[in-house]
Amino acid sequence: MKILIVDDDPAIRLLLFTVFGEEHDVSVLCDGHNAVSVLSDPNHQFDVVLLDLKMPRLSGEMVLEFLSGWQNIKTKFIIISGFHDEARHFKYPNLVATLAKPFNIKELVRIVETSHQSAAASGA
C-alpha cells in the first residue's frame, strides 16, 4: 500500500512513518500546499493519505476542498487532528475517517488497513 503522510508536526510525521514505513511505501510532506502538488499528478498512486487538519500555507480542509471536485480520485483520506470535532462534520467523498489527536495507533492501523481493503474490494 502507498501512504502519504501530511502533517506540520515533525514528531507526528516521524511516528506515522515509523508505524507504517516497514510494511508500506510511505511518503511524508509537511503542508497541504505540497500535498496538493503531489496529489494533482494523476500518476501519484497513493492509496491512503493521513492528513492533518490545521497546517500552515494550506489546511487539510482546503486540500480536501481542492480535490473534492476532481473525478476518479480513488485515494482515501483520513484526518488526524486536534480539531477532531470540527472535522467530524466534513462531507467529502473520499474522507473515510477522522481521528482525534492524541490517537490510538492500533485504531489508526485498523482504519488504514480497512479503508485500503474496502477500496481494493470495490475495484478502486
UniProtKB/TrEMBL annotation:
Protein name, as recorded: Response regulator transcription factor
The entry's keywords? Phosphoprotein, Two-component regulatory system
BP-aspect Gene Ontology terms: phosphorelay signal transduction system
Q: Does the keyword DNA repair apply?
A: no
Q: Cross-referenced Pfam families, in alphabetical order?
A: Response_reg
For the keyword Magnesium, the answer is no
Organism superkingdom: Bacteria
Report the residues modified as 4-aspartylphosphate.
D52
Q: Which SUPFAM superfamilies is this protein grouped with?
A: CheY-like (SSF52172)
Q: Cite the Response regulatory domain residue spans from the record.
A: 2-116
